[in-house]
Structures are given as C-alpha cells and as structure tokens.
C-alpha cells in the first residue's frame, strides 16, 4: 500500500476499491448505491477500529472517513493510518465541527466534503485523490488553463507571458500546485512557506493570496484558479475542472 495504489488498480484493470468508515447505515447505503453505480467497489467499516483492522488486510485504494465515529476520534484514525500508509483519505464532516476538519487535514487527510454533501462533489474529490495517488513522479510543468507553472525554472506564465512573482508569492503557488485540486489548510501553507511558529498568521496569507490573484486572475474578485475554502484554506484548480 502506498502512493502507487491508484496506478496499481488501473494497471490491473480493476476498479478502485473504496473503504467507507461511517457508522450511519443510511449514509453507507446511499454511498454504496452511488459508488457501485460509478463502477467503484465499496467496503464498509462501522467504527474507527473496524477501519484500522480492515485496511492492512483488504488494501483499499482510498478511504472515506466520517470524523464522528462511535468508538474513536476520526482524527486519531487519520494519525494512526498516516503512521504507515499514504492511502488517500477523504473526510466526511459536519459544518459545526470545522476545527476537527482542519485538524484532520493537518494530520494528513487529503480532502473533505461537508455533510450534507452532494454526490457530484464527493465523486469529484474521489477522482482527484485517486489521480493524485497514481501520479508516479512530479511533473516539472503544471498547466491549468492559460496558467503555466514551470517548477524547474521557477517561472510562471499566463498565455505564454511571464508573470513576475515575489519569492513568497511563488512559494505559496508552488505549495498549492503540489496539492493541485486539493485543499491546503492555512496552517499547512504558513508552515510550508514561513516555517513553524507562523501557523496563526493567517493575515499574511490574505495579503499574499490577494497579490497573487491580482497577478494570475483575470478578475481577482472572481477567482478561477486560486479558490478560497472559507475558514479552512485555499485550493488551486484548473478552470476547466473547477
Ligand atoms: Ca457518524
């Protein structure tokens, strides 16, 4: 089990296998119908321990994890999983528990959807997580619509025209590009760009994200590339997919 799991599934010509850890039977049933219809194989765990027991045995390609499980904190499930596995984890959370969701992302979960969620949104998150897991090596040039980020040359262009970024602006864009289509929390960004000890300085981000948007967005007040996840962080997306 590792970052190649999605690719393994594709190579073997089988559909991806998704473990859903969720104690609410109705949600499991809803997910089973929807995921099976899309050709995914779904496994079920009804508690955190059940999920942790099944994972090393059944080798799913992705985990959908309810944070509010009866036996243990979903956050602990994420931490214990991340001790030995890179499997993509998508969090199911309820809106009132915003801090738990952010803590789970900081602990290594890949993404989240908020209950009640739309199936279209969850399926999009699943595709992104599996695609990212299948990516075997880093791509030196990332293309999103008209925006190109050349990581080898630290060069950013829009429709072929170079955009001059400050080192900090570039570093922020680079971290977001490494998590393409996936959310990056304020804490993750601040840690990666400014270092530990700056995790509370979200106003830094507001300033620099504003500057970045003025440089890369056609209309900085209606961003198409650099999206805000309210209260959580930011997400760099391809305008076609977003
Ligand atoms: Ca629950």
Radius of gyration: 18 Å
The chain-level structural class is: alpha/beta
CATH topology of the largest domain, what is it called?
A: Rossmann fold
Based on CA inertia axes, which overall geometry fits? globular
User: What pattern of helices and strands is seen along the backbone?
Assistant: HEHEHEHEHEHEEEEHEHHEE
CATH class of the largest domain: Alpha Beta
Mean pLDDT score, rounded?
Answer: 90
Q: Note the total helix count.
A: 9
Strand content: 15-25%
By CATH's scheme, which homologous superfamily of the largest domain applies? Response regulator
What's the number of extended β-strand segments?
12
In which range does the helix fraction lie?
40-55%
Q: Report how far the terminal alpha carbons are from each other.
A: 30 Å
Which small-molecule ligands are present, each listed once?
A: calcium ion
Low-confidence stretches: 1-8
Proper CATH architecture of the largest domain: 3-Layer(aba) Sandwich
């Amino acid at each position: 089990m590792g970052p190649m799991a999605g690719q393994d599934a594709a190579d073997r010509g089988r559909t991806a296998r998704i473990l859903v850890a969720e104690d609410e039977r109705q949600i499991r049933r809803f997910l089973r119908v929807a995921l099976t219809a899309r050709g995914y194989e779904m496994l079920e765990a009804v508690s955190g321990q059940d999920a942790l027991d099944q994972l090393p045995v059944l080798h799913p390609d992705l985990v959908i994890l309810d944070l509010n499980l009866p036996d243990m904190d979903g956050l602990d499930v994420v931490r214990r999983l991340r001790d030995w596995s890179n499997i993509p984890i998508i969090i199911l959370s309820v809106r009132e528990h915003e801090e738990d969701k952010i803590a789970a992302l900081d602990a290594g979960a890949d993404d989240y959807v908020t209950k009640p969620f739309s199936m279209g949104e969850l399926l999009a998150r699943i595709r992104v997580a599996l695609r990212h897991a299948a990516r075997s090596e880093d791509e030196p040039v990332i293309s999103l619509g008209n925006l190109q980020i050349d990581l080898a040359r630290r060069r950013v262009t829009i429709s072929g025209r170079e955009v001059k970024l400050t080192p900090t602006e570039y570093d922020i864009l680079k971290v977001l590009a490494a998590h393409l289509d996936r959310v990056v929390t304020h804490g993750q960004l601040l840690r990666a760009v400014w270092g530990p000890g700056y995790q509370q300085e979200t106003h830094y981000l507001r300033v620099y994200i504003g500057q970045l948007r003025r440089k890369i967005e056609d209309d900085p007040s209606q961003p198409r590339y650099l999206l805000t996840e309210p209260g959580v962080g930011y997400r760099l997306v391809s305008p076609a997919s977003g």
